[in-house]
Each structure stands twice: as C-alpha cells, then as structure tokens.
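Blackboard transcription, Thursday session:
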Amino acid sequence: MLHTPGNLATNHFSKVTSHPVKTSLHQRQPPNNRLQFIIPNQGTKTKNHCCSNMMASSDKAPDSMPVGDGSVPPGKPMTMGHQVVDKTAQMLQTLKPIKQMSQHVCTFAVYGHDMSRQIETHHYITRLNQDFLQCAVYDSDEPTARLIGVEYIVSDRILDTLPPDEQKLWHSHDHEVTSGMWMNPGVPEMNQRSELENMAHTYGKFWCTWQVDRGDKLPLGAPALMMSPQMVNMSVIKPELVRERDRKFKISTDEARKSRVNFPVSKPGNARVADYWMHTGKSFAVDIEQVEMKDLGGQKIPSI
Amino acid sequence: MDPVHASILPEVPGEKTKIGTSLVDTAAATIQSFGPTKQIHQHLCAFHFYADDMTRQVEAHHYCGHLNEDMRQCLIYDRPDADARLIGLEYIVTEELFLTLPDTEKPMWHSHEYEVKSGVLFLPGVPGPVERKDLEKVAKTYGKTIHFWQVDRGDELPLGLPQVMMALTRDGQLYPSLAKDVESRYGVSFEKERANRAYMEGPTHGIHPKANAAGIGLKTVLREIECKPSVQSESVPRVFV
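(Written on the board underneath:)
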C-alpha cells in the first residue's frame, strides 16, 4: 500500500507553478505536503502563467524530416573502433539493473488517441516485488529493435490505492492475457501459467515515446498514452496482426486462449476508473508547451 | 530546494516476490533470448533537471546501446542497483542527425557538451583513457530525455505525466551537495576530469540555439479527447476471433 504521509523519509517537493486549464492535470500541495492529482477549476489562471506555446502533441503528426535512405533511425553503421571501445567498457561495468530483466513478453497495444493504430510490442520485464513490474518496450525482439517506450505494471490491489485522476491513465490486462495475446515466446504455456494468472490481475501504464508505426525516423513529439486490447470496438486487435505474430514465433494465440479460459479475473472495485475510454468514450493526448522555467535564483527566465 | 539523494528514497509498495513467481521468472530468463537488451553495453551516470524546473535535479543512471554509429537509446534508472527503478529513457543522436530534426522538435533535445567537458557525466568503473575515447563523441551529441517516475518528489509509484528533462549547460547549475555525493560514492573527481577533457570539442556547428528548450522551459499537459474512431459507432461489442 502507499505510505501514509508520515512515513515518507524525505519531504522534498518542488514548489509547483499552476498552469492554466484546458484539462491539464496539475499537482497541488495539500497541507500535509503529500502531492495529489486534482482536476483544477476550469478557467483558473495564475499570475505565473505566460502565454503557452504548443511545441508538440502526441496525437498530431510531427513536422517533416528529410527522407534519407529510409532507414529508421538514419545513420552510419558502427565503426570497428567504436565497437572495440564499447566492448572494453562493457567488460568493466556490471549493468546490474539490466541483468534483472527476467521475462520477454510479446503482446499488442493500441494508441489511446487512435485505436485504429495497433502495434506489436516486446516487453523486457523486471519484477520489483509481487505487486510491481517495470518494462522496457521495444518494437521487435531483434538486436536492431527500437526502444519505443516504458510500461509499468501494478497489481489490482495497488491500482485501487491510486486516486481516480491517476487511474484514468492505466489499462487492465485481464482480456489481454486471457485472449492469448500476452505471450512469453519460447516458454511452454504450462510453465507460464502461474505468472499469467498473476498478470491477469494487473493494470498497466504505457507511454510510447517513438511512434515508429507512424513513420517517424527518430523519436519525435510528445509521449503518447497507450491502451490495452479489449473485447470492445476498435481496441480489438486486427486478426492479421495476430496471425503474423503467431507465424513469426510459431505460437498459437487461439490455443493459448483456450487454455486460459478459466483464469480467475480481477473483480473491479466500484471506484476503479482504469480503461477510462471504455466507460466514457474519451481518451487522452499529451501536449508539450513552452513555459517559463523555474531557475535556481527563484527568478523567472523571461520568455523570448 | 534541496536535492534528494537516491540512497534515501522510499520503497516501491507491494509484497515481496513469492518464490513461485521468481522461479517462473528465472526459467523464462534462461530460455528466452533478449536481443534488444543484449545491445545495452554501457552505464553512464549524469544529472537531469525538469524542463520546467531547474531546482529539481535528479541523478540519472543511463544504460545505453547503439542502434547505429549515430544513435543510442538508453534506459534510465535511479540507481545502479538490482532493485533500481526504471525512471525514464533517453535517445542520443549525433549532431548530424540532430540537424535533420524539425525546428519544432529541437527544443525538446539538450546538448551534452557541458556535461562531458565539466566531468559530471561519466562511465562508472571505466578508466579515464577508455572513457574519454567514447565521451569525445558524446560531447558532440544531443539527447532527448523523458522521465516517467518522479522519485525526487517522493513518488513511490510512477504517477502523473511523462516529464521532459534537460541537462546542465553551464557552471553554477548543479547543486554542490549532489555533485559531492556522487563524487564520493564513485570515487571520481569532476574537477580532475574537467582538466583531462579540456581537449574535447562540442558540436561542430556550435550548440544549436533551439536546443535546450530554446532557453525557456517545457511542460507536458494532458488533454482529454473524444475517442477515435468513435466508440458510439458500434453498440454491440465485437467478439475477438
């Protein structure tokens, strides 16, 4: 469970400047110094706000880049000299957090702001405790895979401790697991079973920072919030994507689904608002805006 | 505000991993190939601050791999330990690639010249001469960093929105206490390294004026939108086949 405010060892919270609302979530310090998320009143303005200037939005195509030779990313092959330097350094460093990655999972995700855009994802997962996992997400399982984002996974128990405005950013995994889409390539189904039963009770928060499927040659724009496959509407994964995945990894999503049909699934509490789009028909995009930066002297750097 | 040191951050909530769960994890790890993560070959320690708030500074442990000679991608952790939290990621590109970015994209990227030349960016455990062979190149690069987990404000979980992060660009920005803490933990001296790295050069064309948030600040904002395609269009859920 989340610590009560009194248990926090340190209390270093930044002074937060408020921002005007379209519907921005901002953090405000309540009297006990525990940061909470609230939706601010519409139309609230503060004296610290300067005219915001939108740099990027996760749901808008970025400005164009040179076509180049079409490779993603563009660039030259590694030089031999560089490889030698890398190998030398690698032998001297332990890379402990990376060694903790214990699972490779292949699954699918949809863009929260456009569910017709669906991608196969490869998660490299570290379990930090029984209720929490963290995943580096790539667009393939090849050495040339692009790092496209990060997903965090919590048990339903932990999700229920989060305030509603935070829960809205999370998605359930029960359908994704029981449908057979969530797979550990190379691991026999029965060996996966206990882990899968655990995973079916979890919720994920997945930010995508490189929209390769959109044709971006480099990671452009604002991070996008992703959602999980569900049985409803456009979040149903296109059969051809699943077939292609199954062919590549010589697995059967259909067989997996049959063997997982009796998985106990999470019983949602009344207050759970994850999978926000399913309840409301609304989703989220992220904008990056220019603002005044708070600098060390406490003086605002004036806008250009 | 005072900087927060990674060593005293609170625990991630949750029960200890059960034996059965960890056995499955271990079995999976021995059978599966880890193609993308096997490319991660380098640990690099540096500092980031929030793109709208320079007073919040974070020690950042980067685990980087090359996609090609011109681009690296890095996972960022709060500590170099087995139980470290994955707090963000960074993409690093050469000047050549940076210059192809649209002008609206460039402000989200930061230069590395100062961090490298001042000595505050380093490769823990790697002797100076080897380290410098790589950092010569890093000094000319630009990075785009996003953090998802605000450990410096005590968050036990990755709450809220992704944060664009920036890097140090001149003397007087880094909290001396943060610097000393890192120097003593890793047995390095930033000042000594600064002297050793004096020969290095930054980007050939100089630091681009649009980089480093173009001298201003950046903030992420959440916007609620109608689902696309419309969820109203089908009243009957489609059954997955």
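Lecturer's comment: Chain B touches chain A through 131 residues (CB under 8 Å).
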